[in-house]
Specification:
The complex is a heterodimer of chains A (about 170) and B (about 325). With about 170 residues, chain A is an alpha/beta fold. Chain A has one domain (about 10-170): Peptidoglycan recognition protein-like (Lysozyme-like). Chain A contains 4 helices and 8 strands, in the order E-E-E-H-E-E-E-H-E-H-E-H. In chain A, strand 4 and strand 5 form a beta hairpin. Classes of the chains: A alpha/beta (about 170), B alpha+beta (about 325).
Chain lengths: ~170, ~325
């Protein structure tokens, strides 16, 4: 039976067509977290990652209403989320329910939960807590036509929360 | 007058008696006929409840399916014709909120798509409002369902001799539309069925050539316009639908040497639940020969391009 990497959330494994099995951090260093916005709902994202034709996945997806987290890809495996093989190999992808154009999706519960998750990952993989290592999808090098998490994402708040929870842990 | 009246009465009586004796057999026959008629009427009424056909436009064949429309308490039976009508509509507001399945059937001389509707998590009893457009000779039929927001079936192949495949797309103005693609020119007919609500669309080949190429289709991108080999000019309208990651679609026009003439990015209105519609305009300089419009996205895995490629020529001034 597959194990999950975090507690208090649901594990709905992505279809094996949508990620690359690996043995991280033994096979590759995990030194980045990539922040995404899904352009859709939490449940739809988790469902789509289970579709064998999706060609995409993220390790985690955070729900807007209550911050509940779904895991689709185990941290040791390589999620297909960044559109860049080097970044995929060395990062964890966190999707967030909502749309880049609509700030109402970025709730306090979502920031809080996602920051707890990032803090957990930073401590586990010794990822520096800065904007060079916690990046938006938009910041992944070209070719990249993605804008997420977009201008409504509050990076100052998010990084403050990550620092706070990393210290608590 | 009194005598006449009496004779008339007697006469009528005699007749009545004759009628009475012969009438026992006749009444027997009449009762049997009545029972038969009732049974036939009941059968027709049942068929009427199950099948309510629609169809306008030219009758080119003398169709094969019975259509029954109930209006003003009566039942009118007509034959459903195959047609090449560019537009058709029907259904009732609010009778369904989702599509549950698109089923394919091969029939003698034609092929059939059955769209099954849902409502509130169960099967819908009727067919929601719909409007069909099918420009003659373009090889597709688009059926819009403005009341339908969810679908359990988002695409699939039919593998028929005339019916090829379908996509369920989030419509830009709300609701969903279904694009049914054929392998060539066709005629069609539409029938509404109830309990559960289903829309039946029959296709049969038409003996004409396609007047316009079918849209280019890739695994997660369909480019509805422009079509292959279309003469283009700036600004160029580009539209289609996709299931590309995070609804992001990259549109690049490259010339014969591979130089980028124009590039744009546009979000579609869905990608997770079903196909999302997008449209944009592309501005570019005049070019010679054939250019290629690449519409798709970077692979989420490695950033390589995944999508559709549409060859186009320049049709503007100075080309």
């Amino acid at each position: 039976m597959a194990t999950i990497d975090y507690s208090n959330f649901v594990y709905l494994p992505a279809n094996s067509n949508n990620y690359t099995p690996a043995d991280r951090p033994n096979s590759a260093l995990v030194d980045k977290i990539v922040i995404h916005v899904a352009q859709g709902s939490w449940s739809s994202a988790l469902n789509w990652f289970q579709n064998p034709y999706a060609g995409v996945s993220a390790h985690y997806t955070v729900r807007s209403s209550d911050g509940f987290v779904g895991q689709s890809v185990r941290e040791k495996d390589i999620g297909w989320h960044a559109g860049n093989w080097n970044y995929n190999q060395t990062s964890i992808g966190i999707e967030h329910e909502g749309y880049v154009s609509d700030p109402k999706w970025f709730t306090e519960a979502m920031y809080d939960s996602s920051a707890r998750l990032s803090a957990y990952l930073c401590n586990k993989y010794l990822i520096p807590i800065d904007r060079d290592h916690i990046v938006g999808h938009v910041e992944v090098p070209d070719p990249n036509d993605h804008y997420d998490p977009g201008t409504h994402w509050n990076w100052y708040k998010y990084m403050d929360y990550v620092l706070y929870y990393a210290t608590l842990v | 007058m009194p005598e006449g009246s009496l004779a008339s009465k007697v006469g009528r009586g005699a007749v009545r008696r004759r009628s009475g004796r012969c009438g026992l057999r006749a009444r027997h026959v009449a009762v049997c006929m009545l029972v038969l008629l009732i049974l036939l009427a009941a059968g027709c009424a049942q068929a009427g409840r199950e099948e309510q056909g629609t169809g306008t436009g030219e009758d080119t064949s003398g169709g094969e399916t019975r259509q029954e429309k109930t209006s003003e308490g009566g039942t009118e039976t007509t034959e459903a014709p195959f047609t090449a009508a560019p537009e058709m509509s029907g259904g009732s507001d609010g009778t369904a909120d989702g599509t549950r399945e698109l089923a394919f059937e091969r029939r003698e001389g034609y092929e059939r798509v059955v769209i099954v509707f849902g409502s509130g998590g169960g099967l819908a009893s009727g067919v929601p409002s719909w409007s069909l457009s099918s420009p003659e000779g373009e090889g597709y039929a688009r059926i819009a369902f403005p009341d339908v927001e969810v679908t359990l079936d988002s695409d699939g192949g039919f593998g028929g001799s005339i019916l090829d495949n379908f996509y369920v797309v989030r419509a830009p103005g709300g609701g969903l539309f279904v694009d049914l693609y054929a392998t060539g020119a066709f005629q069609y007919r539409v029938t509404e069925l109830s309990d559960p609500g289903r829309l039946v669309v029959d296709f049969r080949p038409a003996s004409v050539d396609l007047s316009y190429p079918i849209p280019v289709q890739a695994q997660r991108t369909v480019v509805f316009e422009p079509r292959p080999r279309e003469a283009t000019k700036s600004p160029l309208a580009v539209s289609g639908y996709s299931r590309n990651p995070e609804a992001s679609n990259t549109i690049v026009l490259v010339d014969a040497d591979g130089s980028v003439l124009a590039r744009s990015t546009v979000l579609s209105n869905d990608w997770l639940d079903t196909w999302g519609y997008f449209e944009t305009t592309l501005e570019f300089p005049a070019f010679e020969g054939t250019a290629t419009l690449r519409v798709g996205a970077e692979s989420a895995r490695d950033g390589s391009f995944e999508g559709a490629e549409v060859p186009v020529t320049y049709g503007g001034d100075g080309g």
